[in-house]
Design goal:
Its EC number is 6.1.1.7. By secondary structure, this protein is α+β, with helices and mostly antiparallel strands. It has 24 helices and 35 strands. It folds into five domains: about 5-240, Bira Bifunctional Protein, Domain 2 (BirA Bifunctional Protein, domain 2); about 290-435, no CATH class; about 455-555, Elongation Factor Tu (Ef-tu), domain 3; about 565-710, Threonyl-trna Synthetase, Chain A, domain 2 (Threonyl-tRNA Synthetase, Chain A, domain 2), CATH 3.30.980.10; about 770-880, Diaminopimelate Epimerase, Chain A, domain 1, CATH 3.10.310. The model is unreliable at about 435-445 (pLDDT under 50).
Length: about 900
């Protein structure tokens, strides 16, 4: 067995499969592109779904990669077990309808055991297979020569995630020896494939050979696929003879840096070792996710990052680290990974800034949360209660970000306890909400061979032409090829050449007409999609007969295309303006370019101010007025990068690319259509800007006709406002509004004063209606106050004047009721509590409430029950005194 570094192992794996004819694909972003089913890219196969389900046809059906992945479904186990991680790398080789079981198994064995590669001892390797997969069993025995005693049949060896490709799988295990045996002999899990520490799973070979269809029908796939995954971290632990994944060169430099910062040793205690592991794991995930455009926030991916960071900070406190420190670990992560992931190294300054900013905010949150905890504790003590509500603990955790363990610490110091079942109930509700908010992870479309097997090419001529005479090669109706269609049919059409742009890169597909040689309209093209080989697939409504192998005239909607081109070119100007104003971290994270407007999503971890938006808008309009030439160059990807062209977020590029250059201002890789000069755009206007998720914001804007019409509408509204305000010029509208606001404020103050005088006048009468039960005097009356605020003011006045021992006031407000209860020290001393009284009378008004011993309040939805509520006060006092 060879002793390899993480870099050497990763490269060896990729070199091996490159020798086997695989295309080495760069690791995709952790943030999924055009896949709402995933919160994160969570496996190697997650990035291959488009190939597996036939949506896109790969250049090479053999692909290999080392894919960075994030999983957070069992975050609590990180640091506790030997191999749980949030961020990990999955080494994978994939076959898209090419080789199958025999090659996958033989190559896996060769890579693991051959002296040229990893040189593992074959006697230490075991495999599991699906019991019904006789073919895999035969290959392992006959082709590989593996002894039957090293082959275990497992019912669970069938990879199936719902509808879509699925099939049996074969897992490979490494025997780490008796020293790692953590189970007694005869234990049901003590075997290769069981849940134990001795036999470590290192590779999973999935033989994707069935289509899982509705009603649990399993049909053979048109194209069988191979999906394999080897965990880099656990394989490395074997090669470096490490007890756990954390003692490898992927983690130890980070742990050593934490030792320096904390002054603690990794080997001090088992508890401190967990904290070191959690920090090392989480800072890797944070660094990679932020480099891929995700940013901390209160929802989605951002919430995951915020939770990882806060867990790290709390574990830092356990190591006596009270200051921000995680940003100091980012350069260490970058140094370890830069050979294969230079993007982290290139963004060290930005990643560190984001993490430091978030750490500082969290430390402030901890201080604010501590104040809130102390306030809750004080209220409990005043009420002679000893149990802190689980709902309050959850609010501290969820809203304030205050860790539960810190709440426990403060509460226990005051000899109080927490209602844990209530807290767990709130946590369960949150998890259910999160689960309902997104689709099941790992979904995949049912594979169709109709387009994936189509060998016919189709040339897109729309960069230079608006019309094209072309032969109709294929007609698809009801997911089948047909030779002809007639009026009323909805179809998909593929021509030998087409000027229609297929929807991709954020630009919508073209619309237009299909004509015969006499210019008679035969079909209307509603939109155009992109086929697996990039062919324009025209989605059309047929008006007259169409037949394959006939020539037709294809004409796009020219006006619509010109409007789309203006909007698309404007997104390029906006992208550069964003970077000029906000910084280089502001990257495109998606876009939509239609004829009516453009939508541009970008990464940014703060608010965008009105002044910044104004600057961006001004820059774009300046570039439009300068009438800059828009030039498109076709070149290689390498040459494009040398030119300084920006590659868009999450896009995949082939060897040859198109570079759209707007003078020296903007250079981007883009396959869309554009204007010839910026002056054609005419005008640019930002209409809205807002946050849409985890560190992602969205700008909506208009150009040319749309911008002009929008401004005309704004002017119309302003003119109407000036007419209603009876001013001579629209310039006078702001000052007129200020005047009206001042008048309104004065009227409100006068109204408030009048209500207060009326309430006081009522009070003089109400406070004389004093009743008595035993030695306790009380007032229980309905009052015509404005709102709850006036009820509280009356309560304050009652307290100052000492009219009685108990005060109960009720207020009807349309369909609602409000109640307040106040008690003086004499009443409280006799054992009467305002909170208990409010709970006793509020059910009469179909409400509820609570409060301190001397003051409580409640709301209700049954106004007709107020008289009964007020009448019940006497009986309640009598019952308490009796």
């Amino acid at each position: 067995m060879k002793h390899l570094s993480s870099t050497e192992l990763r490269q060896m794996y990729l070199d091996f499969f490159e020798e086997k004819g695989h295309k080495i694909e760069k690791s995709a972003s952790l943030v999924p592109v055009e896949d709402p089913s995933l919160l994160w890219v969570n496996s190697g196969v997650a990035t291959m779904k488009k190939y597996f389900d036939g949506t896109i046809k790969p250049e090479n059906p053999r692909i290999a990669s080392s894919q960075k992945s994030i999983r957070t479904n069992d975050i609590e186990n990180v640091g506790v077990t030997a191999r749980h991680h949030t961020l990990f790398e999955m080494l994978g080789n994939f076959s898209i309808g090419d080789y199958f079981k025999k090659e996958a198994i033989i190559w896996a064995w060769e890579f693991l055991t051959d002296e040229k590669w990893m040189a593992l001892d074959p006697d230490k390797l075991y495999v599991t297979i699906y019991p019904d997969d006789e073919e895999a069993g035969r290959i392992w025995k006959e082709e590989v020569g593996l002894d039957a005693s090293h082959i275990v049949k497992e019912e669970g060896n069938f990879w199936d995630i719902g509808e879509g490709p699925c099939g049996p799988n074969s897992e490979i295990f490494y025997d780490r020896g008796e020293a790692f045996n953590d189970l007694p002999e005869g234990h049901e899990e003590n075997y290769p494939g069981g849940e134990n520490e001795r036999w470590l799973e290192i590779w999973n070979l999935v033989f994707s050979q069935f289509n899982h269809k509705p009603n649990d029908v399993y049909d053979p796939l048109p194209n069988k696929n191979i999906d394999t995954g080897m965990g880099l971290e656990r394989m490395l632990s074997i090669l470096q003879d490490a007890p756990t994944n954390f003692e490898t060169d992927l983690f130890m430099p980070i742990i050593e840096r934490v030792e320096t910062i904390s002054g603690k040793s990794y080997k001090d205690t088992a508890e401190s070792k967990v904290s070191f592991k959690v920090i090392a794991d989480h800072v890797r995930a944070l660094s990679f996710a932020i480099s891929d455009g995700a940013l901390p926030s209160n929802e989605g991916r951002g919430y995951v990052l915020r939770r990882l960071l806060r867990r790290s900070v709390m574990h830092g406190r356990r190591l006596s680290i009270e200051k921000p420190f995680l940003s100091e670990l980012v350069p260490v992560v970058a140094s370890i990974m830069k050979e294969h992931y230079p993007e982290v190294d290139n963004a060290v300054e930005f990643i560190s800034k984001v993490i430091l900013n978030e750490e500082e905010r969290f430390l402030e949150t901890l201080a604010a949360g501590l104040d809130k905890v102390n306030e809750l504790v004080s209220t409990l003590k005043e009420a002679d209660q000893t149990v802190l509500s689980g709902k309050d603990v959850f609010q501290l955790y969820d809203t304030f970000g205050f860790p539960v363990e810190l709440t426990e610490e403060v509460v226990s110091e005051q000899n109080l306890t927490i209602n844990y079942p209530e807290f767990e109930e709130e946590m369960t509700k949150q998890k259910e909400r999160a689960r309902a908010a997104r689709q099941a992870e790992g979904s995949m479309a049912v594979q169709s061979s109709l387009l994936s097997d189509l060998k016919i090419k189709s040339e897109f001529t729309g960069y230079t032409e608006d019309e094209e005479v072309s032969k109709l090669n294929r007609i698809i109706k009801d997911e089948a090829f047909v030779d002809s269609v007639s009026s009323g049919d909805s179809v998909k059409l593929i021509f030998s050449a087409s000027p229609f742009y297929p929807e991709k890169g954020g630009q919508v597909g073209d619309s237009g007409l299909i004509l015969d040689q006499n210019s008679t309209v035969l079909a209307e093209v509603n939109t155009v999609k992109s086929g697996p080989d990039g062919q324009p697939v025209h989605v059309a409504s047929v008006r007259q007969t169409l037949a394959v192998d006939q020539e037709y005239k294809l004409v796009i909607d020219k006006k619509r295309r010109r409007l789309i081109e203006r909007n698309h070119t404007a997104t390029h100007l906006l992208h550069q303006a964003l970077k000029d104003v906000l910084g280089d971290h502001a990257n495109q994270a998606g876009s939509l370019v239609e004829e009516n407007h453009l939508r541009f999503d970008f990464t940014h971890f703060g608010q965008v101010t009105d002044d910044e938006l104004k600057q961006m808008e001004q820059i774009v309009n300046e570039k439009i007025q300068e009438n800059l030439i828009v030039e498109t160059v076709e070149t290689t990807l390498e040459k494009a990068k040398e030119l300084g062209a920006m590659a868009l977020f999450g896009e995949k590029y082939g060897k040859n690319v198109r570079v759209v250059m707007i003078d020296d201002f903007s250079k981007e890789l883009c396959g869309g259509t554009h204007v010839k000069s910026t002056a054609e755009i005419g005008l640019f206007k930002i209409t809205s800007e807002a946050g849409i998720g985890a560190g992602t914001r969205r700008i909506t804007a208009l150009t040319s006709e749309g911008a002009y019409q929008w401004m005309e509408e704004q002017l119309r509204v302003l003119n109407e406002a000036s007419r209603l305000m009876k001013v001579q010029s629209v310039k006078e509208v702001p000052s007129r509004i200020e005047g009206l606001q001042k008048e309104l404020k004065e009227l409100n103050q006068a109204n408030e004063s009048l209500h207060s005088r009326l309430a006081n006048a009522q009070a003089e009468e109400v406070f004389t209606n004093i009743q008595e039960v035993g030695q306790v005097t009380f007032i229980s009356e309905e009052i015509k106050a404005k709102d709850m605020n006036q009820l509280r003011q009356l309560s304050d006045k009652w307290k100052q004047q000492g009219y009685s021992d108990v005060l109960v006031l009720g207020l009807r407000n349309e369909e609602k009721v409000n109640l307040i209860v106040s008690m003086n020290q004499k009443a409280v001393g006799l054992g009467l509590k305002a909170g208990d009284l409010i709970k006793a009378v509020s059910p009469y008004v179909n409400g509820g409430g609570g409060g301190r011993p001397d003051f409580a309040q409640a709301g209700g939805k049954k106004p007709e029950g107020l008289d009964d509520a007020l009448a019940a006060v006497s009986d309640w006092i009598n019952g308490q005194l009796g």
